[in-house]
Design a protein that fits this description.
Elements lengths: L1 E3 L2 E3 L15 E5 L4 E5 L10 E9 L7 E6 L4 E3 L7 E10 L10 E4 L3 E5 L2 E5 L30
Length: about 150
């Protein structure tokens, strides 16, 4: 607003900025994926947030890998390796540009268990902590004659 002896004048202006950093989020591991859940969306900066950029890497020496996910989709990083520790973060994107990334989170992907009919398989990570390598696993099973699993689906 400007005021002078000649009169007054005013104009409205809109300022648009990049979105804020996501602060209130949780990160959940899957066997080969990581799911981000935003408890509170970042401040949009005056224009709608259109997508999120999700980043991950295994070690600080590696370059970040990333994927851009539209706001309408789940915030998931997929095609990761099981049993691996990853560092992950995300940032919001609007018409002005990419906002700052969240604080990084360390997340360990889980193992994989596949069930088909009456058989299952488990992907195991080879741990070489001795001079003799592990060659195989022996899995034993027996019929449940006491019906102790009756309450489980």
């Amino acid at each position: 607003m400007a005021v002078s002896i000649s009169g007054n004048a005013s104009r409205d202006a809109a300022i648009h900025t990049q979105p804020s950093s996501p602060h209130y989020l949780s990160v959940s591991p899957g066997p080969t994926s990581v799911l981000f859940s935003l408890k509170t969306p970042p401040i949009s900066g005056g224009t709608p947030i259109t997508s999120f950029v999700l980043q991950w890497r295994q070690s600080a020496e590696e370059q970040w890998e990333e994927v851009t996910v539209p706001v309408s989709e789940l915030l998931v990083i997929s095609s990761l390796k099981p049993y691996i520790l990853y560092t992950v973060d995300l940032a919001a994107l609007n018409a002005v540009g990419l906002g700052p990334f969240s604080h990084t989170s360390s997340i360990h992907t889980q193992g994989i268990m596949k069930i088909e009919g009456n058989s299952f398989s488990v992907l195991l990570k080879q741990i070489n902590d001795s001079e003799t390598p592990l060659l195989y696993f022996n899995v034993r099973y027996r019929q449940d004659t006491h019906n102790t699993l009756a309450s489980y689906p």
